[in-house]
Design the sequence.
């Protein structure tokens, strides 16, 4: 892809995977993200009381290709196997993956792209303040479906698919305690009540500090309280946590974070796990395109990068 300029909107696993492969193929790549740093839901919140991987607490490798990638990351010292076969965590925190994948890439943070407009050169990016962020030969949209759809005006067929995807919400509950909880479990998966996943964050490798736990709520429960102030949900979720661990415990601190677009509801949006418009210059990828999860995001970003590179080679 020599001489091509590519804008990637979204610095999560899918966007960064796609960006790295395109840059490796010779493209000039700029990544834009609305957050203060890369990682997307591979995020970590750090406070004086400890740290919590409150997006994806861990991830699994199912396909041989992704397991090979995880082993390469392990060799690089940024992930370790944990808790079960083919289950991985970033070290010393999940957000290290985003930092690692974005190294040496042109990364523009704190920028919310509002429009992708056709231009003589290809595409022009306009942010929420109306500022022109430059023209690019190709654009990759790697954000959740409800955020992707408004950016796909230039590819109506892709836009229709993205607009039809319903993404379900979840809350992450971040708890810290002054003393360890009396249980040997590192991961709990309750089948009733508000919580669906409870993880002892300090049980992971290289997690210093006090006793910290992360719990994720069931999407159906979250949908009923979606617009409530997250902090107001704390008491009910602490009670649910006590039920799950089977003991009455009082946290030293509680934080509740809302993930409005936690997971796609239903089948992958695109049969190939990514999509390109007819001119091969506007693409979309993400976990919601390819069945969900970190592996889905990685696969979607990889396959879109391969398709873009192949299309460019066919034109040469």
Sequence:
């Amino acid at each position: 892809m020599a001489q091509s300029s590519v804008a990637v909107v979204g610095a999560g696993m899918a966007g960064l995977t796609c960006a790295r492969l395109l840059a490796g193929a010779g493209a000039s790549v700029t990544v834009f993200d609305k957050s203060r740093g890369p990682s997307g839901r591979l995020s970590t919140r750090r406070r004086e009381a400890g740290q919590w991987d409150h997006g994806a607490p861990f991830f699994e490798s199912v396909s041989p290709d992704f397991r090979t990638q995880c082993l390469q990351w392990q060799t690089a010292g940024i992930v370790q196997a944990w808790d079960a076969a083919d289950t991985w965590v970033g070290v010393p925190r999940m957000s290290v993956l985003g930092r690692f994948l974005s190294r040496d890439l042109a990364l523009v943070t704190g920028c919310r792209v509002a429009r992708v407009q056709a231009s003589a050169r290809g595409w022009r990016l306009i942010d929420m303040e109306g500022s022109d962020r430059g023209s690019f030969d190709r654009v990759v949209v790697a954000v959740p479906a409800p955020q992707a759809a408004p950016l796909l005006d230039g590819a109506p067929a892709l836009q229709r698919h993205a607009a039809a995807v319903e993404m379900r919400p979840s809350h992450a509950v971040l708890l810290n305690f002054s003393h360890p909880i009396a249980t040997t479990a590192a991961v709990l998966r309750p089948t009733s009540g508000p919580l669906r996943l409870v993880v002892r964050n300090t049980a992971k490798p290289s997690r210093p500090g006090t006793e910290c736990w992360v719990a994720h709520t069931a999407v159906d429960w979250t949908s009923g309280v979606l617009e409530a102030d997250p902090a107001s949900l704390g008491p009910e979720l602490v009670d649910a946590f006590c039920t799950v661990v089977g003991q009455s415990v009082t946290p030293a601190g509680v934080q509740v974070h809302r993930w409005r677009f936690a997971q796609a509801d239903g089948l992958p949006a695109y049969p190939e796990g990514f999509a390109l418009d007819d001119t091969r210059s506007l693409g979309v990828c993400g976990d919601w395109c390819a069945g969900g999860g970190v592996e889905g995001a990685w696969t979607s970003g990889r396959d879109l990068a391969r398709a873009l590179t192949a299309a460019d080679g066919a034109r040469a």
User: Anything to note?
Assistant: The chain has a mean pLDDT of 94. The chain has two domains: 5-43+95-165+269-315, 166-265. Residues 5-43+95-165+269-315 form a domain with the FAD/NAD(P)-binding domain fold (CATH 3.50.50.60). The chain is about 25% helix and 30% strand.
